[in-house]
Amino acid sequence: MQLSRSGRLVVAGVAVVAALGLTACGGGDDSKEAKPARVPSSARAGANLPAVPSSAQLDADFQKAIDPSVPAAEKLEMVQGVDADPDLPNRLAEAYKSAGASVVITDVTAFGDTLNAKAKVTLNGQENIADVPFVAENGRWKVQKAWACQILTTLGQQSVACA
Predict the structure, then answer these.
(1) CATH of the domain at 93
(2) Which residue from 28, 60, 71, 155 has the least number of CB within 10 angstroms?
(3) Distance (Å, rounded) from C-alpha 31 to C-alpha 145?
(4) Is 128 part of a structural domain of the chain?
(5) Which residues are bridge partners to 119 per DSSP?
């Protein structure tokens, strides 16, 4: 079966939203485990960890990371895995651009050396909430490589960093 270009974009877009949505799914565990506390943006996550950013700060960095017009050299510290593929941030940016997706980070929760960002993902006019994981690396918060690779794979793109 052959799909038109717009049909392929719709299918790819639905796949991105589904992949992002699935990252937000979790088991229905009713145990009384302690939940992580929200950390004010001014608080330090730890002695060797970067400060926990506000959702606005993290969104500004994320928007820069997925902006195809921003040179790759300016994005190398924003995405984990660039050692293996310095073009990984641009591949991610192009994937979002080709899918016509927009992402706005709305909330940040700290988990020690990781952050979970809630994001509003809009694709073809449909809005969904997704989780975007960040990791502390070299004194900065970076988009987690596994998540970036999952998005690339979903959109039919590849990176040597994901091998």
Answers:
(1) 3.10.450
(2) 28
(3) 30
(4) yes
(5) 105, 130
Instruction: Assess if residue 82 is contained within a domain.
Output: yes
- 10 located within any domain: no
In tens digits, the chain (163 residues) has pLDDT values of 454 444 444 444 444 444 444 444 444 444 444 444 444 443 444 558 999 999 999 999 999 998 989 998 899 899 998 999 999 999 888 888 888 888 999 999 999 999 999 999 998 789 999 999 999 999 999 999 999 999 888 877 889 999 8
Is residue 67 within 8 Å of residue 123, measured between CB atoms? no
Determine, yes or no, domain membership for 38.
no
Range of the domain at 147: 59-163
Concatenated DSSP letters of the chain: ----HHHHHHHHHHHHHHHHHHHT------S-PPPPPP--TTSBS-TTSPBPPPHHHHHHHHHHHT-TTS-GGGTTTTBTTTTT-TTHHHHHHHHHHHHTEEEEEEEEEEETTEEEEEEEEEETTEEEEEEEEEEEETTEEEE-HHHHHHHHHHTT---GGG-
* Contact of 74 with 61, CB cutoff 8 Å: no
Do residues 124 and 7 lie in contact, with contact meaning Cβ atoms separated by under 8 Å? Answer: no
Which residue's structure tokens are 């449909």?
A: 126
